[in-house]
Specification:
This protein is of the alpha/beta class and 119 residues long. Helix content is 36%, strand content 18%. It contains five helices and four strands; from the N terminus they run βαβαβααβα. A four-stranded parallel β-sheet has the order 2-1-3-4, sandwiched between helices. Helix 1 (14-22) links the parallel strand 1 (7-12) and strand 2. The longest helix is centred in the middle third of the chain and has 13 residues, at 45-57.
Amino acid sequence: MTGRGKLIAVMGDEDMVTGFLLGGIGELNKNCHPNFLVMQKDTTIHEIEDTFRQFLNRDDIGIILINQYIAEMVRQALDAHQHSIPTVLEIPSKKHPYDATKDSILRRARGTFTAEDLR
C-alpha cells in the first residue's frame, strides 16, 4: 500500500459501527472485503475470530477498534497478537461499560512500566 495511510477497522455493535461508518471510515480492499464487522445476535464466535484474524493480516489496516465485550469472546486471539501494528484498542459499548482490568494492552503496559516510570 503506497501513497496512502492505514485504515481503521471496526468490530462492534450496530450503533458503534454505524457511527464510525457515518464518520467516513468505511472502505473495501481490492478483494472487496470491508474494514468493519457489525455484531448481530446470530454472529458466531468463529466469525468474530476469523474477521479479527483477517484484519490482523491486512496490510492496509493500522488500527482495530473492538467493543470490549466482543474482545472478551475472542480474548485468546487478542492476547496472542503481540505486534504494534495493527494496534488493537478495546472500547466500551452503549450497553457494556469499559473495564480496564480486562484490556489486554493495559495489562501488557502495566508489566512494562513501574510506578517510578510514570512519575
